[in-house]
């Protein structure tokens, strides 16, 4: 059984002040086995982020199914399950990393990562230890650990965002341009974590404009223009644009 299967997925958006409904994407289909990594490539505006947000249930699809093999609930359609079930999956099984950081303004960098582990049921001592390991790995200056993220640079916020999501070791991890504002050294750190997560069984869906980053990392590539799914080595870069 696949870990994730997108079947006939389509999404439309309504522009209310114009009273128009515009198709965003349609007829998207692909599947992933456990610990596989698919990279989605395509021009800006082609709907890549819409797929990730729909898997995470920020959006609801208009057509098709998003089947996920949950550890807690078994095989479910993410577009049909209850809000309570989806909240559980976001908390324990499905992680999401975007290039933007939305957090409580009066919570420190360190506590944000600790909290991510505490809500998984880890004890305080282990959560503190693992948080420090994650922040060290992503080279966030220890002087920042007890500061509020609203004072951070864009790159620092992004590294914190990645640390918060990956420290939980989710079964399914969605990556929406997670290296967009990172320098080369930070990108290497992200790649190391992705490789480790894959080895430990995490399934990943990612969007990257940095094609070199994807080389040798993705198992499959889905091209938004041609609607084709191929082995990564055969087609990395086709249809991608910054």
Summarize the structure.
This protein is an alpha/beta fold.
Mean pLDDT: 89
Name the quaternary structure. single chain
The CATH class: Alpha Beta
The proportion of strand residues reads: 25-35%
Q: Name the helicity range.
A: 25-40%
Order of helices and strands: EEEHEEHEHHHEHEHEEH
Query: How many individual β-strands?
Result: 10
Low-pLDDT runs of 5+ residues are 234-242
Number of domains: 1
Strand ordering within the main sheet: 6-7-8-3-9-10
What does it look like?
The structure is a single chain. This protein has a single domain, classed as Rossmann fold, CATH 3.40.50.300. Helices cover 33% and strands 26% of the residues. A six-stranded mixed beta sheet has the order 6-7-8-3-9-10, with helices on both faces. α3 runs parallel beside α5.
Offer a few descriptive terms.
alpha/beta; six-stranded mixed sheet; globular; disordered C terminus; AAA+_ATPase
List the helices and strands and how they pair.
Layout: E1 4-15, E2 20-32, E3 37-41, H1 48-55, E4 63-70, E5 74-77, H2 83-92, E6 94-97, H3 109-118, H4 124-137, H5 154-166, E7 172-176, H6 184-199, E8 203-207, H7 211-214, E9 220-223, E10 228-231, H8 232-235
Parallel strand pairs: 3-8, 3-9, 6-7, 7-8
Antiparallel strand pairs: 1-2, 1-4, 4-5, 9-10
Protein name: Phosphonate C-P lyase system protein PhnL
InterPro entries: AAA+_ATPase, ABC_transporter-like_ATP-bd, CP_lyase_PhnL, ECF_ABC_transporter_ATP-bd, P-loop_NTPase
Membrane topology: Peripheral membrane protein
């Amino acid at each position: 059984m696949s870990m994730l299967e997108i079947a006939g997925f389509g999404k439309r958006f309504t522009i209310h002040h114009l009273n128009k409904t515009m198709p965003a994407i349609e007829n998207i289909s692909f599947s992933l086995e456990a610990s596989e990594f698919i990279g989605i490539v395509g021009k800006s505006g082609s709907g890549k982020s819409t797929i990730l947000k729909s898997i995470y249930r920020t959006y609801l699809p208009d057509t098709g199914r998003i089947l996920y093999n949950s550890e807690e609930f078994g095989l479910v359609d993410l577009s049909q399950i209850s809000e309570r079930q989806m909240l559980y999956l976001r908390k324990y099984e499905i992680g999401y990393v975007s290039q933007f950081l939305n957090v409580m303004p009066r919570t420190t960098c360190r506590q944000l990562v600790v909290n991510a582990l505490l809500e998984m049921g880890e004890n305080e001592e282990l959560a503190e230890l693992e948080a420090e390991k994650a922040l060290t790995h992503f080279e966030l200056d220890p002087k920042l650990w007890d500061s509020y993220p609203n004072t951070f640079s864009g790159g620092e916020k992004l590294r914190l965002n990645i640390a918060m999501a990956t420290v939980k070791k989710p079964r399914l991890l969605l990556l929406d341009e997670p290296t967009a504002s990172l320098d080369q050294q930070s990108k290497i750190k992200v790649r190391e974590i992705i490789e480790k997560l894959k080895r430990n069984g995490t399934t990943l869906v990612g969007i990257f404009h940095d094609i070199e980053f994807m080389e040798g990392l993705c198992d499959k590539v889905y091209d938004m223009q041609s609607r084709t799914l191929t082995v990564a080595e055969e087609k990395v870069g086709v249809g991608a644009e910054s």
